[in-house]
């Protein structure tokens, strides 16, 4: 049984916009850790939100976690952590971190909560309305991870963390996934230090998968023995290669008139207003 399975998924935010996701079909095995790679607008966040049951889809699509329909029979043990949390006015109110974590059940998971408090360097005396975005992100991670999860959906949640805390967090998540056979799907634009984290990587472009979840490290196709790419070939380099291909693909669509051009427009010459 797949930990996450998606079939025939096409999704548009409204009837007059093009689909954000087109014919998505994937299956992730239990215990896998998959990195989603793609440019802004590739559909990564939309896919994660749908998997978390935050948006509804039509009857043709089949979206399941632990073989349960995420919209009609929401499975337990699913944690979604995204960037919008830090902007929620509730978590910017005048409340202490200790009280906030207790209000969402931190006392029931004290051992994991305390481990995360140490790992994320969180001060229980912080007031939520007085801390920085990076500190608020640490509280979010403690809040989201203190209850054991079976499926973890992460959308750019390390963007505000310093290098050391991010590294400690990734080590914790990897060890937790391995110890409990838990599954992680992680969309990020930060690839430094990720080489040893994923079991799979995937590439999205304009709402579709260019590369379906594929075992990492990738096989070296140039070697007759099909050895794996060495550790010196970083995930960063693979991501950069894929993103450059995305940009060239996009520019080709612009040259064909199938996509509105971005960037400077050479024919857009405007004179400065007269000073008098």
Automatic annotation (TrEMBL):
Matching entries from SUPFAM superfamilies are given as: P-loop containing nucleoside triphosphate hydrolases
| CDD domains reported in the protein's UniProt record | ABC_ATPase
- Asked whether the keyword Membrane is assigned, the reply is no
* Annotated PROSITE patterns: ABC_TRANSPORTER_2
- Which terms in the Gene Ontology molecular function aspect does this entry carry? ATP binding; ATP hydrolysis activity
InterPro entries in the cross-refs: AAA+_ATPase (IPR003593), ABC_transporter-like_ATP-bd (IPR003439), P-loop_NTPase (IPR027417)
Q: Which Gene3D superfamilies match?
A: P-loop containing nucleotide triphosphate hydrolases
- Where is the segment annotated Disordered? 254-276
Domain ABC transporter: from-to ranges: 4-231
Key words of the record: ATP-binding, Nucleotide-binding
Coiled coil ranges: none
Q: What is this protein called?
A: ABC transporter domain-containing protein
């Amino acid at each position: 049984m797949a930990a996450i399975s998606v079939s025939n998924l096409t999704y548009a935010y409204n009837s007059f916009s093009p689909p954000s996701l087109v014919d998505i079909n994937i299956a992730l095995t239990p215990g896998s850790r998959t990195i989603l790679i793609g440019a802004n607008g590739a559909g990564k966040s939309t896919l994660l939100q749908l998997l978390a049951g935050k948006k509804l889809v039509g009857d043709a699509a089949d979206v399941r976690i632990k073989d349960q329909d995420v919209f009609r029979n929401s499975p337990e043990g699913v944690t979604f952590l995204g960037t919008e949390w830090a902007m929620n006015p509730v978590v910017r109110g005048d409340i202490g971190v200790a009280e906030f974590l207790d209000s969402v059940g931190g006392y029931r998971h004290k051992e994991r909560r305390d481990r995360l408090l140490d790992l994320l360097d969180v001060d229980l005396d912080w007031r939520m309305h007085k801390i920085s975005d990076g500190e608020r992100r640490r509280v979010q991670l403690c809040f989201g991870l203190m209850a054991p999860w079976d499926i973890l959906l992460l959308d750019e949640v390390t963007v505000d963390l310093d290098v050391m805390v991010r590294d400690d967090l990734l080590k914790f998540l990897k060890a937790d996934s391995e110890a409990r056979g838990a599954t992680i799907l992680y969309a990020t634009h930060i690839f430094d230090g990720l080489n040893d984290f994923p079991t799979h990587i995937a590439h999205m472009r304009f709402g579709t998968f260019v590369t379906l979840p594929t075992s990492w490290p990738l096989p070296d196709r140039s070697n007759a023995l099909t050895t794996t790419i060495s550790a010196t070939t970083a995930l960063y380099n693979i991501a950069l290669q894929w993103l450059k291909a995305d940009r060239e693909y996009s520019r080709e669509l612009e040259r064909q008139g199938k996509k509105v051009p971005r960037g400077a427009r050479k024919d857009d010459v405007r004179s400065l207003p007269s000073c008098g």
